[in-house]
Amino acid sequence: MIEDDEEINVQPNAETEEQTGLRNGFCKFVMAPICWIKMLSDEMHWSFVYGVLVINGVSQGLGGALGRLGKDYYLKDVQKVQPSEAQIYSGVIYIPWIVKPIWGILTDVVPILGFRRRPYLIFSGLLGVISMLLLSLHEMLHLVLAIMALLAGNISVAFADATVDACIAENSITHPFLAPDLQSLCELSLSSGELIGFLISGILVHQIGPQGVFGLLTVPAVLVVSVGIFLDEPHKPDFAYHQVFQNFLDACKALWTTLKCPDIWRPCLYMYLSLAVSVDIYDGMFYWLTDAAGGPSFSQETVGLISSIGSVGAILGALLYQNVLKNHPFRGLFFWSQLLFGLSGMMDLVLVLRINLKFGIPDYLFAVIDRGVSNLVDKLKWLPLLVLSSRICPPGIEGTFFALLMSIQNFGVISSSWGGGLLLHAMGITRTQFHNLWLAILIRNILRVTPLCLLFLVPRGDPDTPAPANDVLDSEEAALVLDDDNVELVSLLAPN
Fold first, then answer.
1. Residues 214 and 295 occupy one common structural domain
2. Measuring CA to CA, how many Å separate 339 from each of 335, 345, 439?
3. Rounded distance, CA 216 to CA 300, Å?
4. Residue 110 within a domain
5. Has residue 70 been placed in a domain?
6. Are 285 and 390 in a shared domain?
7. Does residue 474 contact residue 340 with C-beta atoms inside 8 Å?
8. pLDDT tens for the 496 residues of the chain, in order
9. Residue 439, domain CATH
């Protein structure tokens, strides 16, 4: 009898310990990111961490997601342009990301009033505020001025991104043990911002319209200005401005010497062609999903929700690559990712031909699956390109050359967008005519697998194979870049 009483008394204590353990585990789960960010702030400076969170998470992530859907509906419903024209304009708006190395070099070698970062951040934020206010307050802005305003908004984001990337590179050099943490901070803040942005973008476009969304985008721009005001940066008033031109010449000479190496230009050519040939017809699909008489006729909220759920596919793709595929040879990865890229595009064909309805799969569910699979495959295709880019960078100009490689890839993305616009125009696809959309999708999917014929341009090795460009620059040329006066050129990094 006494033993039974003891068992009864012990049971509540066991339950209490289990509940306490769960509560402590939940608290650790919630507090771990906060403690991590606090650790980074203590090791470096709170203003730097604040700048990374604002520019990567709020400006690029949240603002980029809101701006993407706002831009789509603005061109379609306010400017009333054709799908092919919208595709071309999207490429034009993306041009600032091609010349991102120029923004980075400017912040590195041309200080203003003794500061290399703060004035450029303030300028970027003010440019974003002005461009977004112009789009939001003018009821019917001329198309040319609207494209220029959207272009200025992208310059604002790209310039700020190049500036904070340089700050990240500097802190990675001074705090090498925290370099992985800084990259994780960038990726997590960017992914979280995009997820939240896509989740609320459709609701906001429906409630306040695309121009109202542009008005809201002044908030991230104002936060970028605040980063420029609070950023902790040493003041160096005595700068030899007469050396700026020589610094540019030294950087160009080192880049040209590197690009002449076959082990360098061949992968660069593959990177560009693999992206450019895979034409993008996103705007044609977007118009069909929202406006076509026999299409799904998705609302703004639905489009935003599909994008937010689809972004989970990109996260899964990154996890799959990190945990399973990162050590595989480049050629094998590019072969399968490019093949899957073409096959995944067939899901758009199934949706447009309404085959999914014959199998009882609703449009919304199939569109979510389509977007998720496409984002996953796209991430599997993109990440090996980033790894290959970092692998072929020669020592001494790693940052500058990596930024150049990202510009080459961004130019491939723009070429893909322009090629898609020409394809939509050739197929006669307009705001009301979608009869040949299935054929455009089929042509796009065939073009997506053509880069398989170019795999001979890719090195046979894997990420652990010694880099082919270690001896591209001789010691004298490398010293030009690594000299104390030119060391800033190394600190250019490109976005994800």
1. no
2. 6, 10, 19
3. 17
4. yes
5. yes
6. yes
7. no
8. 444 554 445 455 555 655 565 555 556 656 777 887 888 888 888 888 898 899 988 999 899 999 999 999 999 989 999 999 999 998 899 888 888 777 777 776 778 888 878 899 999 999 999 999 999 998 888 999 999 999 999 999 988 888 887 787 777 767 777 766 776 777 778 878 888 898 899 899 989 999 999 999 999 999 999 999 998 888 777 766 667 677 677 767 777 877 788 878 888 898 899 889 989 998 899 999 998 888 898 988 888 888 888 778 877 887 787 677 877 888 888 899 899 999 998 999 999 999 999 999 999 899 999 988 888 888 888 777 777 766 666 665 555 676 777 788 889 989 999 999 999 999 999 988 899 999 999 999 999 999 999 988 888 776 566 555 555 554 444 444 444 444 344 333 333 3
9. 1.20.1250.20
Chain-centre distance for alpha carbon 362: 30
In a domain, 7, yes or no: no
Distance of alpha carbon 121 from alpha carbon 125, whole angstroms: 6
Structural domain span for residue 279 = 244-496
Same domain for 141 and 59: yes
Q: What angle do CA 84, 408, 96 make, to 5 degrees?
A: 60
In the chain, the number of structural domains is: 2
* End-of-domain residue from the set 239, 262, 296: 239
Does residue 27 form part of some domain?
no
Q: What angle do CA 424, 425, 427 make, to 5 degrees?
A: 65
Q: Of 206, 239, 272, which residue constitutes the final position of a domain?
A: 239
Instruction: Output the pTM of the full model.
Output: 0.75
458 and 347 fall within a common domain: yes
CB atoms near residue 243 (< 10 Å): 13
Please tell me whether residues 172 and 259 are part of one structural domain: no
Q: 367 with 253: CB under 8 angstroms? A: no
Angstrom CA distances, 48 to 51, 62, 217, 449, stand at 5, 19, 22, 43
The answer on 209 and 118 residing in a single domain is yes
Contact 305, 199 (CB under 8 A): yes
Q: Are residues 205 and 265 in the same domain?
A: no
Strand partners for 115: 112
Residues 293 and 344 in one domain: yes
What span, in angstroms and rounded, lies between the C-alpha atoms of 475 and 482?
10
Main-chain dihedrals φ then ψ at residue 112, nearest 5 degrees? -120, 120
Among 370, 397, 402, 398, residue whose Cα is nearest residue 385: 402
Cα diameter, the chain = 95
